Amino acid sequence: MPEEHNKDAMKTPATSEKPKGDERPAVSMTTVNIPLVNEVQLTAATGGTELSCYRCTVPFGVVVLIAGIVVTAVAYSFNSHGSTISYFGLVLLSAGLVLLASSAVCWKVRLERKKERRRESQTALVINQRSIFT
């Protein structure tokens, strides 16, 4: 009879209090609402620098252009046409030119917008002036 007592002791209970390995706890989801920012708020937050891309690209364009000129001159002074350093110099040279050209385009666009705003404000002033005197 002691053998039967040992067999019962080795059995696991039918209802286990341990969670099973394949069960996972419920995942709680949180929703985050991202507020939309309009142009006025962006201008207030950045101090108006988002409209001055030409001011930022000019110094970078000049530095990259000078680096491109130097690297290209060094590469071609050693007569290493078609080498990696000559290609790198030409890439820097062209990147500097692209940066300077894009800053010039941004500057022109900004000037045109300023002129258009001035015309609109002058038109509004003239219309308001006429409506006051009539």
Tell me how many strands there are: 0
Oligomer, anyone? single chain
Largest sheet: none
Amount of beta strand: under 5%
Low-confidence parts, pLDDT < 50 over ≥5 residues? none
Number of helices: 4
Global geometry: flat
What is the element string, with H for helices and E for strands? Answer: HHHH
Q: What is the end-to-end distance?
A: 120 Å
SS-derived structural category: mainly alpha
Give the proportion of residues in helices: 55-70%
Radius of gyration based on Cα positions: 36 Å
Mean pLDDT: 75
Protein name: Transmembrane protein 100
InterPro entries: TMEM100
Transmembrane segments: 58-78, 84-109
Region (Disordered): 1-25
What does this structure look like?
The chain is mainly alpha-helical. The protein has a domain at 50-134. Helices cover 69% and strands 0% of the residues. The longest helix has 50 residues, at 84-133. The protein starts with a helix and ends with a helix. The model has no long low-confidence stretch (mean pLDDT 75).
